[in-house]
Amino acid sequence: MRKHIQIAIDGPSGAGKSTMAKIVAKKLGIMYLDTGAMYRAVALKAIKSGIDTKDGDALAEMVKDIDLRIVYENGAQKVLLDGEDVTEEIRTPAVTVGSSNVAVNPAVREKMVELQQKIAKENSVVMDGRDIGTHVLPNADVKIFLTASIEERAKRRYEELREKGMLKQTFEELKKEMEYRDINDSTRSHSPLKKADDAILLDTTGFSLEEAAKVVLNIIKSRL
């Protein structure tokens, strides 16, 4: 394997990008960076600061000096916002919706991309998100666009939250939230959710996690 590699995994909400990226990073022994967590942290800061997550000017000002760091402790990624561990707090429904709102803000995206590219320059990484292959890491060694049906994605997210004891919505509410994010992420003017021309499309509807991971790892190994 090359000494320095970049792997981009993109796709819509609930496609299993983060889970897959963690598996890949662990198998290859490289860093995993959850870019979605970074936007969630921005949304959390906005909410705590009383800023509307759709207020572009206020967000642009807020993000200028945001103290946001991704660290690893005992192999687990932690998100530190203003020196505070917010790893769990950024997974609430309000932050989920807010993260999609802040992600359409050009100033927010520019700041986050700057941080992400710096990390990727210094480390071999697996990044997941919505514009990694098209914008953040356009020269990534491997690009995969992971997707699944809306029903399957909602079901996976529902079960994930239920198992973590963080379920605060009905299945239908979760599905509507996911549909909202799909539209929001795909139609934003700045770096929308889009499959890179050189990315491999993988629809995992009906796949088990193990089956999907096997396919993804085979794709990666064939290109490194």
Automatic annotation (TrEMBL):
It comes from the Bacteria. ATP binds at residues 11-19. GO terms for biological process: nucleobase-containing small molecule interconversion; pyrimidine nucleotide metabolic process. Residues 7-221 form the Cytidylate kinase domain. Gene3D superfamilies: P-loop containing nucleotide triphosphate hydrolases. GO terms for molecular function: ATP binding; CMP kinase activity; dCMP kinase activity. It holds the Pfam family Cytidylate_kin. It catalyses: dCMP + ATP = dCDP + ADP; CMP + ATP = CDP + ADP. Its main location: cytoplasm. One of its GO terms (cellular component) is cytosol. Its EC number is 2.7.4.25. The keyword ATP-binding applies. The keyword Nucleotide-binding applies. It is found in: Cytoplasm. Keywords: ATP-binding, Cytoplasm, Kinase, Nucleotide-binding, Transferase. Belongs to the cytidylate kinase family. Type 1 subfamily. NCBIfam families: cmk. This is Cytidylate kinase.
